[in-house]
């Protein structure tokens, strides 16, 4: 997959980026240095594919800035199912550690993004050298699998309004920023994007969000959703 290489960053700067990421706590300087020396910084413009389904799965990525959308796209219809939106400090592309050599999902720059690309072989060396990295990786994979299983259960058991309400709670916990009137989900979310996450239509999502707004539970601020009070959040 072609990508635009960022202006060269010295290994010391790449190590500092990794030191601030989710995978760093507890890692030795030797393990950080191994990952930093074997990685490269790459830039992607908004809406550009980082990888597509069927691409060779040969690297993991750590998000330096921006956010990335992981999704599945139907080849016949072009319809998109959003699996997750992840932000700075997070790692993705972990399927390169266990897949049959090709990507099963797509990753797209949700915003203009800078990433550290870590070859899978280098990452495996880091896991072999660092028990902390080994533990972090399996914990991350387990958490994402658990989240995916909960979503499957929600799709089977919940009507669309309940799925949307649960999504708002999840996003407020992951991306919430305290404001005077409540908690702002610090993530621009077009209604069609929300519909792709909850398995609905844009029209149904708009109807439900407008109902929540009329009830005083949420508001819209610069294309972001504000959950107005802790009590309202509990009601959602």
Features:
42% helix, 13 strands, alpha+beta, four-stranded antiparallel sheet, 236 residues, 8 helices, five-stranded antiparallel sheet
Would you write up a description of this structure?
- Helix content is 42%, strand content 25%.
- The chain has helices at residues 11-19, 29-38, 120-129, 131-157, 160-175, 191-198, 202-214, 230-235; strands spanning 4-5, 40-44, 49-51, 59-65, 68-73, 80-86, 91-92, 106-109, 113-119, 176-179, 182-185, 218-221, 224-227.
- It has a five-stranded antiparallel β-sheet. A four-stranded antiparallel β-sheet has the order 3-8-5-6.
- α3 (120-129) crosses α4 (131-157) and α6 (191-198) packs across α7.
- The longest helix is centred in the middle third of the chain and has 27 residues, at 131-157.
- The radius of gyration is 19 Å and the shape is globular.
Outline:
This protein is of the alpha+beta class. 42% of the residues lie in helices and 25% in strands.
Distance between the termini: 41 Å
- Which of globular, elongated, flat, extended, rod-shaped describes the shape? globular
Biggest β-sheet description:
5 strands, antiparallel
Q: Let me know the number of strands.
A: 13
What's the number of helices? Answer: 8
């Amino acid at each position: 997959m072609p990508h635009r290489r960022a202006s060269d960053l010295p290994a010391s700067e790449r190590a500092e980026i990794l030191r601030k990421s989710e995978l760093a706590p507890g890692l030795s300087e030797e393990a950080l240095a191994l990952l930093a020396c074997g990685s490269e910084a790459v830039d992607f413009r908004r809406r550009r594919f980082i990888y597509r389904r069927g691409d060779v799965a040969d690297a993991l990525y750590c998000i330096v800035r921006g956010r990335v959308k992981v999704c599945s796209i139907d080849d016949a219809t072009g319809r998109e199912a959003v699996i997750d939106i992840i932000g700075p400090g997070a790692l993705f592309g972990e399927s390169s550690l266990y897949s049959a050599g090709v990507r099963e999902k797509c990753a797209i720059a949700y915003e203009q993004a800078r990433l550290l690309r870590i070859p899978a072989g280098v990452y495996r060396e880091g896991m072999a050298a660092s028990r902390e990295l080994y533990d972090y990786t399996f914990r991350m994979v387990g958490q994402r699998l658990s989240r995916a299983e909960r979503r499957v259960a929600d799709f089977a058991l919940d009507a669309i309004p309940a799925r949307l309400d649960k999504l708002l709670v999840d996003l407020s916990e992951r991306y919430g920023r305290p404001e005077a009137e409540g908690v702002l989900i610090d993530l621009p979310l077009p209604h069609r994007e929300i519909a792709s996450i909850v398995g609905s239509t844009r029209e149904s999502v708009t109807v439900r969000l407008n109902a929540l707004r009329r009830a005083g539970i949420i508001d819209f601020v610069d294309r972001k959703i504000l959950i107005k009070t802790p009590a309202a959040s509990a009601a959602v």
